[in-house]
Structures are given as structure tokens and as C-alpha cells.
Amino acid sequence: MATSQLPPFPSMAVLLFGFGFVFLMPVFVAGVTRHYTFHIMYRNVTRLCHTRTILSVNGQFPGPRLVAREGDRVIVKVVNKVSNNVSIHWHGVRQLTSGWADGPAYITQCPIQTGQSYTYNFTITGQRGTLLWHAHISWLRSTIYGPIIILPKRNQSYPFQKPHKEIPIIFGEWFNVDPEAVIQQALQTGGGPNVSDAYTINGLPGPLYNCSSKDTYKLKVKPGKSYLLRLINAALNDELFFSIANHTVTVVEADAVYVKPFDTDQLLIAPGQTTNVLLRTKPYLPNATFFMEARAYFSGIGSFDNTTTAAILQYNNHSSSSSKLPVLRPTLPPINATGFVANFTSKFRSLNSVKYPANVPIFIDRKFFFTAGLGSNPCPKNTTCQGPNGTKFSASINNVSFVMPSTAILQAHFFGQNNGVYTTDFPVNPPLPFNYTGTPPNNTNVSNGTKTVVLGFNTTVELVMQDTSILGAESHPLHLHGFNFFIVGQGFGNYDPNNDPKNFNLVDPVERNTAGVPAGGWIAIRFLADNPGVWFMHCHLDLHTSWGLRMAWIVLDGPQPNQKLPPPPSDLPKC
Ligand code: C2O
């Protein structure tokens, strides 16, 4: 009988196993560094027969595509060649321990002044899909915006069929006049601002506007192929419905996170949101022409741009016949289709696969209940105001209309030199509870301040955002910098803290950076505060941001070296 004997160390088996192990391990592919230079410069653009000098990046409108793979480092030198102060935000990029590169003016940096430059330096970690970059000061993002395309790592593929082509579709809003004058006048008079003159698809309004048919985006496709449309809403003040005539698309990703695929004919996309959809073209359709259209979803009161932008989906002409088929137009939901919006947003679910798990915080350290909505500020003495009942329009979270400081909060925080730049007493709950979606209170005045919330490192946070009907119920696309959050619940009416949490989805809720607080309803989100820095949170309708619907979270350093915010780069702009 052979006795088993331990072979001399190291055993052949161990060696073989060791080799096999090395061989079978996926080869680690380090990201590369991608360099860009963004010159902020003037450019003349004509739309709707109006020529305007706009601010652009490198003379391009919409701006250049920023392309990177997951894991890459991105270095963008921004050079300001215009008279406005500027800053650029990489919307949705998590900026793990790179908060100095986030970009919102007076939150993480002072703006870049005329003739100055600043180099943004960040690594894209754990994200893949589509995001956007845009100016983050006043209303400059009306023309300073462009796509961020994050490809999977080199050795990885999509969790869906590889598309034949990938096409960014970026929605915008065109003003015949200078948008800076529009918001300045609105803030001065206290009234609602003039609305935009057109929506655009890849910078072009399309044939449904006067003097615009030559400014139409055309997407030429081949039959029987699949196209990945990278949809981005960069519009200033409007959530948009989008549809392609006679085509169904499959939603596969939202805010650079994969979702469980679902089919739809009509979409809603809020400013700041991005979503990838697969478009499968039909088998054989010579000369066929379909419209893709977008127009506003508007739930509030007052005026808005109710026009429609259109682009053309054109099948390649393979036959010699020149017979023109009629152009087919899509059906979009009604302007105020809040029911459609609730139903559509509830279809988004995290992929939640082994490879892409949904790490929903289950045990919550801190709970917050914030109201979000419009209100008013008293009219200064001896002036007349054009807001509600002679007041000035304002907007607030928990009745605080956030006042922009004159120096960056992150700098003041990092160097421990607050000196009254901000306070840390942002209310955890509404100061005066009321029937948020019922009859509004008599006094609609808001308070003003630069208030923040301080969170310890790795705090798990649950935040319920409740819309108020003070000046009309209205949807607010809420954007959080520095984090993705999970949308664990949403509903209409007032949030019920005793019963609504029973229905929270803690298994596969969608993970996003921007989500609509439903008109006359609430949304519950959860996130892990694992990123030290100062993180802006605001309504992504720029008008509401300007009116004060914004606040900031301060997340403290963690104990480990890689959990601390490093000192700022030496070229950080000064105020
Ligand atoms: Cu896309 Cu603070 O913004």
C-alpha cells in the first residue's frame, strides 16, 4: 500500500497551481492618462436667423467630446479667454479624493478669471457609460457643455450586444438673446425670466422652427443594425420628453451605471441626466425618414418654452428609386404628463449582477427630510418687484435659500479658515412642518444663508426630498455632486415616515446622480458618504438653482491616507 508522503517543499503541485493562477488571473490593465485643453472662447452662432456671440470650448458648439475608459486619468487644462469668470464641472464623475477638480464655482473652487487657467485632474473609477461636462457658474452652461463618454476597461465588454455605432445625442436650449442678461434681469426684478427660443439636438433646433430647417441634425443609419444612442440633457431649465417615430428603444444605462434593460417608445430625461439606449433599425426600409423629437415636460405654473425640436433618422438609400416616403412623426406624452413620468422613472432598476452589484446602504446612520420648492423674498424698499404679489421669486430647501459665498467653501473648510464663509447648521428637518402638498401657508417667505451639513466619513445617509406646492407643485431634478445615490422610494403627496419605508426597494434600486423629485410628491435616496470634500446639491433647473434651491454637504476625511482629501493643486484659482 502506497503511503502518501509529503513531497519536499515547494511541491510540484503548488508550483503548477501557482503558474496556472498567474495565467488565469485577468491581466491587470492600468488606465492611461488622457490630456485635453479647453479654451473658453467666443464664437458667433446663427440659429433661427439670430446671430449671437456665444461662449464656447475651442470654438465648438456643442463642445468637444471627452472620451476615456473606466480607470483612466483625465487631465483637462481650461484656459479662460473670455471676459466672464468660468469653471467647468464634470457632471456625475465621482471625484474620489479629487474634490478640487469638481468645478462648481464658489463651492469647490473660485472661478477661473479672464486670462487665467486651471488644470482639472481626476481619475474615472467604477463608472462606465455617458455623463456630461458643463460650465458651473451662473447660466454659462447654456452654451458651454459637451459629452463625457466612458468606455469599459480595455479587456471588458458591455453587458449587452455590442452596437454597430455609438452616437451622442445631446439636448440643449437656445436663446436668441444672451442668457446672462436673462438671468440677471430676472434676479433683479424678482420675476420669472424670459424662456428659451428653441430646444436643440446636437446644437440644432430642427425643421419645426422658423428659419431653421437647414439646422437639422441628421442621423444616417443602416437597416438591421443596433446603435447605442448616448442621450444627454444639457438643457438649462427643462426636463424633456423624447421619442423616435415608429421605433422602440432599449434603455441599458443611466448616469454611467448599467440598468436592467427595458423597452420604451417614449423617454423622459431631466437636465443633468444621461442615459444610453439601444436603437435597433428595421430590416429594410429604403429612403425611409423618421423624426426624433423632444419637447418639455412642465408641471409648474408660469411660462415655459413649449416648442419642439426635431432631428431626422434617415435610412440609407439602397434603391435607385427616388420615391419620397412621408416623414413620420413620433407621439410625445402631453406637456404635463406627471403620471407618465412616475411610471417611466419606476422602470429603472440597477442591473445588480455579480459584476455590477447594487451596494445599497441598509443600516442608516443619519436621516434627513428636506422640502424643496419655490417661495418668495420680500421686495427691497422703494423698488417694485415682479414676483408673486410684488415679491421676488426665490427657491429653497427646508426654507433656506442658499446664498453663494464669495470664496470657495472647500478652500475655507480645508484650511480651517471659515471666517463666516459658511455655517454648519443646515436644518435636518423643515423648520415649520405643514401640509407640504396641500393649501400653502400664508407666509411664503424663505430665509437666506450659506448653510451646510457636516457628515463624518463613511456615514450612511437617507434623504427624503419632499416637493412643496407653495407656489405650485413642480418637479425638481435634484443633482448631488460627488456621489451616486440609490432611489429607494418615491410617491405622491406627503411622505409618510411610518408607512412609506415599508415599500422601499433595497434590492435593485436605480443608482443615479440626478433624479426628479416628483411634482407634488417625494423621493427617498440613500448614499454612502465615502468621499471627503464639499459637495453641492441642487435642482438642475438652472433657474431654480439661481433662486437658491441648492445646499452643500461637507464630508470629513477618513482615518486612512487614501480617505483624505489631498491639498489643492498649486494653480487653484483665487477669488
Ligand atoms: Cu450638472 Cu452642479 O451640476
Automatic annotation (TrEMBL):
GO biological process: lignin catabolic process
Cofactor(s) needed: Cu cation
Keyword Nucleotide-binding: no
Key words, A-Z: Apoplast, Copper, Glycoprotein, Lignin degradation, Membrane, Metal-binding, Oxidoreductase, Repeat, Secreted, Transmembrane, Transmembrane helix
GO CC, one annotated term: apoplast
Residue ranges the record marks as coiled coil: none
InterPro entries on file: Cu-oxidase-like_N (IPR011707), Cu-oxidase_2nd (IPR001117), Cu-oxidase_C (IPR011706), Cu-oxidase_fam (IPR045087), Cu_oxidase_CS (IPR033138), Cu_oxidase_Cu_BS (IPR002355), Cupredoxin (IPR008972), CuRO_1_LCC (IPR034288)
Reactions mediated catalytically: 4 hydroquinone + O2 = 4 benzosemiquinone + 2 H2O
Keyword Secreted: yes
GO MF annotations, alphabetized: copper ion binding; hydroquinone:oxygen oxidoreductase activity
Subcellular location: Secreted, Extracellular space, Apoplast
SUPFAM superfamilies for this protein: Cupredoxins
Cofactor note: Binds 4 Cu cations per monomer.
EC number in record: 1.10.3.2
Name of a matching Pfam family: Cu-oxidase
Domain Plastocyanin-like: residue ranges: 41-154, 166-317, 426-557
Regions that span the bilayer: 12-33
CDD domains: CuRO_1_LCC_plant, CuRO_2_LCC_plant, CuRO_3_LCC_plant
NCBIfam families (alphabetical): laccase
Known role: Lignin degradation and detoxification of lignin-derived products.
Family membership noted in the UniProt record: Belongs to the multicopper oxidase family.
Name by which UniProt lists this protein: Laccase
Species this protein is from: Dipteronia sinensis
